[in-house]
Amino acid sequence: MDAMDPSRLSLDPQDPDERELIEFFLGELPERVRxxxxxxxEEDHERLSRIAHQLKGxxxxxxxxxxxxAAAQLESAIKELNGYDSWADRVSAQVSSLVEECESFIxxxxx
Length: 111
Prior knowledge:
By secondary structure, the protein is an all-alpha fold. Helix 1 (16-41) runs antiparallel to helix 2, helix 1 packs antiparallel against helix 4 (87-108) and helix 3 runs antiparallel to helix 4 (87-108). The two termini are 16 Å apart. The longest helix has 26 residues, at 16-41. The chain has one domain (15-108): Up-down Bundle (Four Helix Bundle (Hemerythrin (Met), subunit A)), CATH 1.20.120.160. Helices cover 72% and strands 0% of the residues. It contains four helices and no strands.
């Protein structure tokens, strides 16, 4: 994807109030991606689950349904682990998907 596709958003970037919400969410996203990477590298599934849960709830409200969906899939994958030792291997695809979705919006935002 070369540019952010406004059809991927549920908020209207042309509306000043909604644009402000989009900008706020996008401004916070790099830090959330960093926290996801930190939790993965530290194998902290509780923190990773908490970050995913927060994104699952917040992203759709800011107009980023696809990020919310990816976060929900990650949260679900973590819950299904039930303490397996190889949890990082089992959730790595979901983490990659969520991070890729977040970075796509960061990279391609015209805001």
